[in-house]
Design brief:
The chain has 294 residues and is mainly alpha-helical. It is built from eleven helices and three strands; from the N terminus they run H-H-H-H-H-H-H-H-H-E-E-E-H-H. The longest helix is centred in the N-terminal third of the chain and has 20 residues.
């Protein structure tokens, strides 16, 4: 336990407030001298907390020793039951008393048990992403190929998941300043850049989708707590825009194909990845698409 600086130690030794009993002031000087606070103002706050605690405990007949007065139960009773204290003062006193107790009587304040932390999921490898894109290209109809490719590009290229991914329309995919961004809707509207290697596929999927969701289905925008739908304003195409809005073209609405069995080697990619985008229940990594550095 380090000692206080001479100036701070001198201030602690001279501290004798008239509002506290001499015994309570002596207790405060003794324990705060062991704490060795940094700065005169910090020493003053700790002395006041220890002195008020000692005055309260001595009035109840407790021994003025650190093992008794700094016990967590005594300090908690003081901060809850001492009269004449505002709620802010009670919270400040409890914080300061716990700080003093951990340094003077550490055996009474065991270290907190660490809470478990969720580790970041391992990102998909380039080979795995190439496999997803190959499955998208193997879908039986152009509409399904575009929707599957758009889903992979939004997840792997922009890092979108769940509701944010499902709500993206073709008109939300925008060319700006030589790149491609996605205007994400919902409770946290924001603009998300897309990795360059996914630009062509995503723009093609957005042109086909138009004002419809890129991944198919019906767009459902999550309302905010005020009941309003937050949407990011989309810039109009101008002469300075490097390319036109991907959803501005009036492409014919895709026809709904009959539900036939997929003629590929695996199950329908769309059905598999829709599960990935909904609640993260599928796949060995939770089917999230972390953004991979290019």
């Amino acid at each position: 336990m380090r000692s206080a600086e001479p100036e701070i130690a001198g201030y602690i030794a001279r501290w004798r407030p008239s509002s506290l009993s001499p015994q309570a002031a002596a207790f405060a000087r003794g324990v705060i001298g062991q704490v060795a606070p940094e700065g005169k103002e910090r020493a003053k706050n700790l002395l006041w907390a220890a002195g008020k605690l000692a005055d309260f405990g001595i009035g109840l007949g407790l021994d003025a020793v650190p093992e008794v007065l700094l016990h967590p139960s005594v300090a908690e009773r003081f901060t809850r039951c001492a009269p004449g204290l505002s709620p802010v003062a009670r919270r400040t006193l409890r914080t300061n008393l716990r700080f003093i107790g951990r340094r003077v009587v550490p055996q009474l304040y065991p270290a907190d048990m660490p809470l478990p932390r969720e580790r970041a999921k391992e990102p998909y490898s380039p080979a795995e992403l190439a496999g997803y894109l190959a499955l998208a290209d193997a879908q039986p109809t152009p509409q399904r190929r575009m929707r599957a490719a758009g889903l992979v590009c939004l997840g792997a290229g922009a890092g979108l998941i769940r509701a944010g991914l499902r709500a993206v329309r073709g008109s939300d995919v925008i060319c700006r300043s030589g790149g491609v961004i996605v205007a994400v809707r919902g409770a946290r509207p924001r603009a998300v850049p897309v990795l360059a290697r996914y630009h062509d596929r995503l723009l093609a999927a957005a042109r086909l989708a138009g004002a419809r969701p890129v991944t198919g289905g019906t767009a459902q925008i999550t309302p905010t707590r005020h009941g309003k739908q937050n949407q990011l304003p989309l810039p109009a195409a101008t002469a300075t825009t490097p390319c036109h809005n991907a959803g501005a073209g009036k492409a014919p609405a895709p026809t709904r194909e009959p539900r036939t069995k997929c003629q590929t080697q695996t199950k329908s990619l769309r059905a598999m990845l829709e599960t990935c985008g909904s609640a993260g229940k599928g796949g060995r990594r939770g089917c999230t698409f972390p953004v991979i550095e290019s």
